[in-house]
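Sequence in, structure out.
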Amino acid sequence: MVGTAELVRYVDGLHAAARKMTSSDAEAEDLVQDCLASAVQGVSCIRRAELLGAWLHQILRRRWYDILRRRALERRGRPDGRAAATAADADPAGSELVRRALGALELDARRVLEMRFFQSRTSVEIARELGRPVGSVRSQVFYALRKFESEFRRLCPKETV
């Protein structure tokens, strides 16, 4: 079984691919963080380590396509930009676990995760609002995700993790 620690070795490759897609370092960083946040939730399903890189790049591409679709919808006058249902909409039990895991985090960690993933704010926007350096925000998101994952796994029924 593949674990979250193995995701780290793919970060540079993901960032290079994201940079080509977005043409912006800040947007590429945000795209990679979105990708890794999604991957953390499903990495335990990967049984063969040699598939991990391709799986991560597929998540990255899908996240980028979601952003492009959202932008296209916004240009057509739909400011909500929602192209598809979220995972929380499809799985109420999973969303309850997410709420409980978030509730167990410290206030600052919960706040940056909510801003980043529920409000779809970039690291630059969060840094500006909180009056912190962008690098500090990205670091805080990274460590908050690790704490969230740990709490989520603790709360999850054993057969689903």
